[in-house]
């Protein structure tokens, strides 16, 4: 089952997204300065613009490192992350207004870039905080307009783009200010409404998911009780049949013996099926699994030994390769061995005589990749996605092999996911299948 992302994790992901976005914005800013200066030949007061680019780089890097640091030290603390988000957006607004001031003030069409910050604030922050950030933007903007108008701070003309000294024109300044301020508030209102609805929906979906998980747990507990009882009754039935077959109750004629052997055989199959069901339900219900250090090499060798006789009987060659630096793994050895044995047994079972099975183990950066490839019957394309479902058996498998519970792969999936790994398959009908297991690398 896919692990649910917590509210805190979702928030921190969005902050990292903001940092990534800022790197792109910095690049865009530098390219725009170069473009305006070199291609459009507008006269710009360039140096402060580069200073601001450097400042943006410095605090973006600082926020990135700080975020990594506190995440490692204190885990995810919503209050601190909220503070970081607010600080970042406020700093961005200050940088933007400074950029605008040095490049034409109210005459610069880039003033409308404030809207992007308002949308980002609406996604990251609460509705109140977003409106406060909008008001902060309006305040910065009005300070700039009024101070430039009264000559308290200088005005830097954007020569070549707009008739200069528009900032001294009260009608122009008033109209632009009105449009600017109303646009900001409308943008925040709309964006917070949309993001509020989405957040509410996300919350509902999470609640629904928890409810389904709870129902699934109740169902599994029920299955566990029932299968446990069935298993006990079956064991008793089999015990009685065994006694009669071995002659404890007297000699049997051939017909009786044949019927009892068949009954015994069927009971045995039913018991393996019930045991598999018990196992998958137990794994599903287990919360914390006790991990131990074990040798993956030995585990795979055991699994190969287990299927060796069957493979030889069909003349199916098993080739095995493992990278030298892979061995120690943390997990439940017996479960991993059973999983690999299961995949190998399937590979042998569904591969016609004289075929081959390759098992390879590779060391990835953070994971270990185990692949089992066969030259078998393959899986029909429209059924590949279902083979990990409980009780599912593909049509072609049923014709080749009548025995099978359709539980082996779902147990394998549960086991691998309990180890925080992934399992998947690629297959071509009539050519072969490759099952891949990816486990977190705990090699030491
Ligand atoms: P079972 O083998 O008992 O039917 P599994 O859960 O192990 O159950 O496998 C589920 C289904 O996946 C099989 O019935 C078969 O259709 C398909 N399958 C698994 N392994 C292979 C394989 N190596 N080649 C082709 N089909 C496979």
Q: Could you describe the 3D structure shown?
A:
It is a single chain. With 444 residues, this protein is an alpha+beta fold. The protein has three domains: 7-168, no CATH class; 216-285; 292-440, Heat Shock Protein 90 (2-Layer Sandwich). The protein contains eleven helices and seven strands. The strands form two sheets. It has a five-stranded mixed beta sheet. Strand 4 (356-363) and strand 5 (367-374) form a beta hairpin. It is elongated. It starts with 6 loop residues before the first helix and ends with a strand. The model has no long low-confidence stretch (mean pLDDT 90). Adenosine-5'-diphosphate is lined by residues 346-347, 350, 374, 376-379, 387, 392-394, 397, 404-409, 433.
How would you describe this structure in keywords?
Heat Shock Protein 90, two-stranded antiparallel sheet, 3 domains, elongated, alpha+beta, 444 residues, 7 strands, binds adenosine-5'-diphosphate, five-stranded mixed beta sheet
Strand-helix topology:
Elements: H1 7-39, H2 46-74, H3 78-101, H4 114-124, H5 127-149, H6 170-245, H7 254-285, E1 292-295, H8 296-313, E2 317-322, E3 328-331, H9 333-349, E4 356-363, E5 367-374, H10 395-400, H11 408-418, E6 422-428, E7 432-440
Parallel strand pairs: 2-4
Antiparallel strand pairs: 1-3, 4-5, 5-7, 6-7
Helix pairs in contact: 1-2, 1-3, 2-3, 3-4, 3-5, 4-5, 4-6, 5-6, 6-7, 7-11, 8-9, 9-11
Bound molecules: adenosine-5'-diphosphate.
């Amino acid at each position: 089952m896919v692990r649910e992302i917590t509210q805190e994790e979702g928030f921190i992901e969005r902050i990292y997204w903001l940092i990534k976005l800022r790197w792109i914005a910095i690049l865009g800013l530098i390219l725009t300065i170069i473009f305006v200066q070199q291609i459009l030949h507008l006269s710009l007061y360039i140096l402060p613009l580069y200073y601001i680019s450097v400042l943006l780089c410095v605090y973006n890097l600082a926020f990135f490192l700080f975020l990594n640091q506190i995440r490692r030290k204190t885990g995810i603390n919503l209050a601190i992350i909220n503070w970081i988000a607010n600080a970042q957006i406020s700093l961005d607004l200050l940088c933007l207004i400074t950029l605008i001031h040095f490049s034409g003030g109210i005459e610069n069409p880039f003033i409308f870039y404030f809207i992007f910050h308002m949308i980002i604030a609406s996604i990251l922050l609460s509705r109140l905080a977003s409106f406060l950030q909008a008001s902060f933007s309006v305040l910065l903007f009005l300070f700039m307009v009024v101070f430039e108008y009264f000559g308290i701070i200088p005005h830097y003309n954007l020569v070549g783009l707009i008739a200069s000294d528009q900032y001294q024109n009260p009608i122009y300044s008033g109209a632009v200010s009105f449009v600017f301020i109303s646009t900001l508030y409308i943008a925040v209102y709309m964006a917070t409404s949309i993001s509020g609805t989405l957040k509410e929906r996300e919350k509902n979906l999470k609640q629904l998911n928890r409810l389904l998980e709870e129902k699934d747990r109740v169902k599994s507990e029920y299955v566990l009780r029932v299968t446990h009882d069935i298993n006990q009754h079956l064991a008793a039935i089999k015990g009685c049949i065994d006694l009669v077959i071995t002659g404890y109750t007297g000699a049997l004629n051939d017909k009786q013996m044949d019927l009892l052997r068949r009954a015994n055989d069927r009971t045995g199959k039913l018991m393996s099926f019930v045991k598999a069901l018990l196992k998958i339900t137990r794994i599903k219900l287990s919360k914390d699994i006790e991990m131990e250090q074990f040798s993956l090499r030995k585990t795979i060798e055991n699994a190969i030994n287990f299927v060796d006789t069957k493979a030889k009987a069909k003349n199916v060659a098993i080739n095995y390769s493992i990278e030298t630096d892979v061995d120690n793994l943390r997990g439940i050895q017996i479960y991993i061995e059973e999983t690999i044995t299961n995949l190998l047994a399937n590979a042998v079972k569904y591969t016609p005589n004289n075929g081959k099975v390759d098992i390879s183990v590779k060391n990835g950066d953070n994971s270990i990749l185990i692949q089992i490839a066969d030259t078998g019957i393959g899986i029909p394309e429209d059924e590949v996605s279902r083979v990990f479902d409980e009780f599912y058996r593909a049509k072609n498998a049923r014709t080749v092999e009548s025995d099978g519970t359709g539980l082996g792969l779902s147990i394998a999936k549960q086991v691998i996911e309990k180890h925080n790994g992934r399992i998947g398959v690629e297959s071509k009908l009539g050519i072969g299948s490759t099952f891949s297991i990816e486990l977190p690398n705990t090699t030491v």
